[in-house]
């Protein structure tokens, strides 16, 4: 919060470039040049930080796609929890077109519900990648092992692949994708892409949290080594 | 724009619900517990309706494919028929009926297992492309992958017991350290995102920017 207040007076706090997020615009433009659609997914799971960030990215991708005249496909489903996010995804895509003044280009059928079964949902997306000859695959939010199959199939049709790397699929996605969003890179996407100094200020605020965590770890290690264990009961561990 | 469609209304409702759950999580207030229980039930009901909405959308999407005879339309027809049959059987027998169990055991289960096992081939082809002596990073990746492969393969430790020791060290120290680092940073990021949403500073998840370009 103090960072937010500080950022009000500053122009725009510096944060490092995130290659994966910067590449989204390039991927959309390339898909538009090739006249191929973009597949942008928001992953599995109910409303959680990862899904919220993914919806922000879907909104950003849709606005850029609407601007460049590209078609966007947003596959929905995957599990029962995701179904509650579906109406929100429809609204995100619809109003992104509305924001760009291109509501007439919005096709509700492109925010398609595929299945509530995880692998049926993934298989349908693989079919779409080949059938529609997808030019850019942008998958954010939570994914299971299917992200490997989706990325690899998209590469086989020559798509640019930008995906968020979950902890357990990170190694595989790093091998396949052109760009991987790791950890908080995805969570910070909404703020990063907005270029809003106030929101960027909160990302800077996280650095203070990280410094405090590092300091606590160091203090804890030293204290435990010299036999003065005060942090463990203090943190309830 | 109608007043109830304004972005401020959605943002206000989001902040209110976050506050209710936040207070309920930290303080033991029975009245608030009833409210959060109700809100959770609402979520379940909305989710159930959303599945209905999803299936209508799916019928429209694939029904049109069949109507227009676009490439791959027989698969779309099969999907529409299968969904209709299973929905009707489910409505008649319930989730645990004989026919529903047969559908699950004979089709859904084996297909899920097949897809899961296919993922390993995608990983193999990805590894084939990535594991090359191109740079220092890819060489480290290749070496570690080779050690981990031999640690897990039964023949690995027969060839050299060190594969097990090094593999275990890799898992317990570098991998554990990195994964905890990512978890920590993701958690801090989630807290910051929650704060931005609570304070109404981030709204891109709601519906675009809300600033219409004419």
Which SSEs are present, and which pair or pack?
The complex is a heterodimer of chains A (237) and B (214).
Chain A: H1 2-9, H2 19-33, E1 38-43, H3 49-68, E2 72-73, E3 76-77, H4 86-99, E4 113-115, H5 118-131, E5 136-142, H6 146-156, E6 160-165, H7 170-176, E7 179-182, H8 184-187, H9 189-194, H10 197-225, H11 231-234
Parallel strand pairs in A: 1-2, 1-5, 3-4, 5-6, 6-7
Helix pairs in contact in A: 1-10, 2-3, 3-4, 5-6
Chain B: H1 7-26, H2 30-68, H3 73-93, H4 98-130, H5 136-152, H6 156-159, H7 162-198, H8 204-207
Helix pairs in contact in B: 1-2, 2-3, 3-4, 5-7
Approximately what portion of the residues of chain B adopt beta-strand conformation? under 5%
Indicate the overall shape of chain A: globular
Count of structural domains of chain A = 2
Q: What level of helicity do the residues of chain B show? A: over 70%
Computed over alpha carbons, the radius of gyration of chain B is 26 Å
User: Major β-sheet of chain B, in short?
Assistant: none
Structural class of chain A: alpha/beta
Q: What's the order of the H and E elements of chain A?
A: HHEHEEHEHEHEHEHHHH
Number of strands of chain A: 7
Q: What's the end-to-end separation of chain B, in Å?
A: 15 Å
The number of distinct helices of chain A, counting runs of at least 4 residues, comes to 11
Oligomer: heterodimer
Question: Helix and strand succession of chain B?
Answer: HHHHHHHH
Question: Terminal Cα separation of chain A, in Å?
Answer: 28 Å
């Amino acid at each position: 919060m103090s960072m937010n207040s500080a950022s009000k007076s500053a122009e725009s706090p510096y944060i490092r470039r995130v290659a994966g997020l910067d590449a989204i615009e390039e991927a959309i433009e390339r898909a538009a040049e090739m006249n191929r659609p973009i597949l942008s997914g928001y992953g599995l799971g109910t409303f959680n930080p990862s899904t919220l960030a993914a919806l922000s990215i879907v909104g950003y991708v849709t606005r850029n796609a609407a601007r460049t005249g590209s078609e966007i496909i947003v596959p929905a489903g995957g599990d029962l929890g995701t179904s509650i996010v579906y109406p929100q995804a429809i609204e995100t895509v619809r109003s992104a077109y509305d924001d760009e003044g291109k509501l007439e280009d919005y096709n509700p059928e492109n925010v398609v519900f595929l299945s509530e079964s995880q692998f049926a949902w993934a298989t349908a997306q693989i079919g779409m990648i080949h059938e529609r000859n997808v030019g850019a695959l942008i998958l954010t939010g939570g994914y299971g092992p299917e992200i490997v199959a989706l990325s690899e199939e998209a590469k086989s049709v020559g798509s640019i692949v930008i995906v968020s790397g979950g902890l357990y699929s990170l190694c595989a996605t790093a091998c396949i994708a052109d760009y991987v969003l790791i950890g908080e890179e995805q969570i910070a996407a909404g703020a990063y892409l907005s270029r809003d100094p106030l929101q960027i200020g909160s990302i800077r605020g996280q650095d203070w949290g990280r410094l405090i965590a590092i300091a606590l770890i160091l203090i804890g290690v030293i204290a435990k080594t010299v036999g003065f264990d005060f942090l463990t009961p203090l943190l309830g561990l | 724009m109608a007043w109830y469609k304004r972005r401020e209304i959605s943002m206000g409702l989001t902040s209110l619900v976050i506050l209710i759950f936040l207070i309920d999580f930290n303080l033991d207030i029975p009245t608030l517990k009833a409210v959060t229980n109700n809100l959770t039930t609402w979520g379940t009901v909305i989710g159930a309706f959303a599945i209905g909405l999803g299936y209508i959308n799916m019928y429209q999407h694939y029904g049109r494919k069949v109507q227009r005879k676009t490439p791959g339309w027989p698969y779309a027809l099969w999907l529409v028929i299968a969904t209709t049959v299973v929905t009707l059987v489910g409505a008649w027998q319930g989730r645990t009926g004989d026919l529903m169990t047969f559908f699950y055991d004979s089709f859904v289960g084996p297909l899920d297992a097949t897809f899961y096992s296919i993922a390993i081939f995608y990983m193999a082809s990805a590894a084939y492309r990535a594991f090359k002596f191109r740079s220092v990073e890819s060489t480290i990746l290749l070496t570690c992958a080779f050690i981990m492969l031999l640690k897990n393969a039964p023949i690995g430790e027969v060839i050299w017991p060190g594969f097990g020791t090094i593999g275990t060290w890799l898992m317990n120290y570098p991998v554990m350290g990195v994964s905890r680092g990512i978890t920590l940073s993701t958690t801090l990021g989630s807290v910051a995102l929650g704060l931005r949403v609570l304070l109404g500073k981030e709204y891109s998840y709601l519906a675009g920017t809300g600033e219409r370009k004419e």
